[in-house]
Structures are given as C-alpha cells and as structure tokens.
C-alpha cells in the first residue's frame, strides 16, 4: 500500500469510498465542496495495487474565529469496506499528520471515536481548555499538537467551515 497526495484522477474513487464507508453521500459531498472552495487543504489517498482504497482530508479550522493560528481539522476519513481493519486508516492518519507538520500546521483537531484517535497522540480538547462548536460529548473532540505547546495560553471554541453543518 502507498499513501500519496490525491490527484484529479482519484476524485471519483474518493467519492465512492466515502459513500460506501459512510452509507450516505453527505461526506463525499463535503469533500467535493471543501476541495473546490477552501485552501489550504491536504487530501491524501491510500492505494493498493491499482485501487484507491482509502482517503483522508484536512482543512483549516479556527479558534475563536481568529486566523492567527495555523490549525487543521481532520475530516472526513474513510476506508473502503472490505479493506478496513488492515492498517489503511492508521497509515493515512500517520502520513496525513506528517504532511500537516511539513506544512507548518501547529495543531490538528478531530471529531471522532475516542478509542481510535488517541493512539496517534490526540488528546481530549478539554485538556487544552478548548471545545467544539458542536454539542458533542467532550471525549469525542480531540486535538493533537504538532508544535509542542502551540495551544498554550489559547482557550475557546474551534469552528469548522460552514459546509460541515450540512453533514
Ligand atoms: C474509521 C476508519 C477510517 C478506520 O480505517 P481502518 O483502515 O479500518 O483502520 P485501521 O485498520 O488502521 O485501524 C483499525 C482500528 O480502528 C478501530 N476502528 C475502526 N473503525 C472504528 C470505529 N467506527 N469506532 C472505533 N474504532 C474503530 C478498530 O477497532 C481497529 O482497532 P484495533 O486496531 O484496536 O483493532 C474506517 O473504519 C472507516 O472508513 N469507517 C467508516 C467511516 C468512518 O467512520 N470514518 C471516521 C470518521 S471521519
């Protein structure tokens, strides 16, 4: 399996992965919207043989609606059913976080399963005094600092692009 940046030729396969993994078109549409409207983005695929089997997407989020911090949200991510539980998702997270670090991102947020993301170094956001704008249980909203202490002295609410409101 290799992990690489998405190209135009991957877009249809990426859409199919999200539709199959989530069982609805909402996440696929979210990716299409963000890909066309938002910069910077990080969009990476996992390829096995000639087949695109997984996708991970990062887009900017803000703390207290300020633009002075370089923060990205990990979402959405999906692996084709049939290829799940074989390490594809983990490889995407690890490579995706590396790419974020290479681009100078200070911290990454994720809204996801609290049994999955801590293995990559994500901590509950409340440990940083930071919350999600969404009314979710606090343990499902997590943050990983890529630059040590990047969020020191920063507290408040993380906001995602308005397109996330449709999912
Ligand atoms: C979540 C997902 C991307 C993980 O990809 P994957 O290739 O199966 O992940 P890996 O093989 O690297 O890791 C498997 C681990 O993830 C855990 N896992 C997978 N899906 C999970 C879920 N929905 N909730 C909790 N844990 C989950 C498995 O228990 C396994 O843990 P283990 O190693 O302790 O057994 C994939 O299952 C998927 O596409 N799910 C549907 C879409 C989704 O929920 N996306 C995430 C939210 S944005």
Automatic annotation (TrEMBL):
<dbReference type="GO" id="GO:0016747">
    <property type="term" value="F:acyltransferase activity, transferring groups other than amino-acyl groups"/>
</dbReference>
<feature type="domain" description="N-acetyltransferase">
    <location>
        <begin position="1"/>
        <end position="147"/>
    </location>
</feature>
<dbReference type="InterPro" id="IPR000182">
    <property type="entry name" value="GNAT_dom"/>
</dbReference>
<dbReference type="InterPro" id="IPR016181">
    <property type="entry name" value="Acyl_CoA_acyltransferase"/>
</dbReference>
<keyword id="KW-0808">Transferase</keyword>
<dbReference type="Pfam" id="PF13527">
    <property type="entry name" value="Acetyltransf_9"/>
</dbReference>
<protein>
    <submittedName>
        <fullName>Putative acetyltransferase</fullName>
    </submittedName>
</protein>
